[in-house]
Structures are given as structure tokens and as C-alpha cells.
Specification:
alpha+beta; seven-stranded antiparallel β-sheet; 31% strand
Amino acid sequence: MLHQTGHTNAVSSGLRLGRLLQDCGLINEHQLMDALEAQAACGGRLGAVLIKRGCLTQEQLASVLETQDAIRASSLALDMSVIVGSSVPADGQGIGFAVTLTKTEVEHSMPFPGPPVRAHQSLLTDVSRDLSIKAFSAQGGAFRLKGACGASIPYQVSVGTGFSETPAELQFDAPLHLAAASDSEDRLKLELRVNPADLRAVPTGRFCDTLQVVLE
């Protein structure tokens, strides 16, 4: 379990909101990083910092927050859970994840592109050394969630080490090399992402995959 200060929690919450605003096309990476630095130096809420800097309007922020609440309240959920009995990551070992997504009829319209549906998982490992990481899907050839109806949904897998670092995207069965990060916690941060356009293209139902992550 992580023990964070109130300040760290505030910055973490701001980062999540910032990434959501990025997903919606309202701010760019440079604006987000500048605003996070200002928030860390002066305190306050990230949304207020961005509005003060003219990066977005109060109406845009309110719409994004409303959308975030609607997604959390709906039964639309991407879940990533460790498969019981799979190995703890270590040299040459892997760990399995059961990935599921349930799509309902719930829709939330916005005046800008909707955010991806995300799931996160942390893996305890030694990040003070160089790492190579691979990921595989049970569907073979690509990361896809398969439904009983025969339809499937592509998803992306990203991994990072630093707190504010933008995660690097993994390609199916292709090693991604991560440089040692002595200033980070001893954990990798996995992120799964499903784009709204891909979600809209399939019928309602439950979609599943088994994701295998291997560290070397």
C-alpha cells in the first residue's frame, strides 16, 4: 500500500484530470506539465490553474468533470485483475491478467472527443535496473477483447515508471526497453486503454481477454 501525503495526493489527482483533459483534446502535454509545476509550487486545483492560464474555460472543465462522474457512475467499466496463481514479476517471469470490459447502453454526449476507458495496475519490481518488458494477448497477434457475440474491441497497453512520466506504449510481442529509474518507486505502472470510437463500433455485452506481461 502506498502512503502518500495530502500534497502528493492532490498532485496525483491533478495529473489524472490533466490526462483526461488531454484525451479530450482540450490541452496539450506542454500546457499540462507547466500547470502541474505551478500547482506543485503554489498549491490549488489543477483545473483552476489551467483556467487562470487561459488554457480552457470554466464550461469546458465542468463538462469534462461531468463526463468523468458519468463514466464512474455507469456500469461501463474496464477491469484488469491479476490471475490467481500467476507469477510475481522477476527475471524472466511473467504475470497474467484477466481483462474484462462491460458495455451498456449508457451514452454520454460531449461537444468534444470523449476520453478513453482506462484500467491501471501496479507491478512491484526493481526499477533501479534496465528492464525489458513484453506483453501478449490470448487473442493472438493484437491486443483485443472478445465478446460472446463474436465482435472484438482493440485496446492499447502502456507502461511507465515515473510519477508524471507519460507511459510508453507496448506493441504485441515486441520488447520495450525501460532505462533504470532510481528516483521512482519500485513498481511498474501498467495502463490499458480503449478508445471511444472502438467502443461505439460494437454491440453491448461483456468482452474479455487474458493479458500476459513478461519482464526480463
